[in-house]
Design a protein that fits this description.
alpha+beta; 2 domains; 4 helices; elongated; binds zinc ion
Length: about 120
């Protein structure tokens, strides 16, 4: 195990955080979580972090709260923003559906009171 900041291997176990082994670097006193998994975080963790960000939480606060490093969260947010144009593309369809529902609704009203 190496410290991600100073690359010292003078690292000790420092309890658990978010069900992951937490480490403390004796050299620079940085705390970090073991990242032996290649991809790191589950989709649930990613979604949780993005939800926190959408609720107005800052990157530092998210890092403290979830143990996910700031840079990772920033990358996720960037990815999420890149997807927004695709999602906007669906809006016309939703609007059409609303119009349809209004149309069907008004038709029912006419039937109810027209006869
Ligand atoms: Zn260190």
């Amino acid at each position: 195990m190496q410290c991600p900041k100073c690359e010292s291997s003078y690292v000790v176990k420092n309890g658990w955080r978010q069900e992951k082994q937490n480490y403390l670097c004796r050299n620079c006193r940085r705390q970090f979580i073991a990242t032996h998994e290649p991809k790191g975080y589950t989709p649930q963790v990613k979604k949780h972090c993005l939800t926190l960000y959408c609720n107005g939480m800052g990157f530092r606060a998210i890092e403290r709260s979830t143990g996910v490093t700031r840079n990772t969260v920033i990358n996720w947010v960037k990815q999420a923003f890149q997807k927004i144009p695709e999602e906007n593309y669906e809006i016309p369809q939703t609007a059409q559906l609303d119009e349809l529902q209004t149309f069907v609704g008004s038709k029912k009203t006419k039937f109810g009171f027209g006869q």
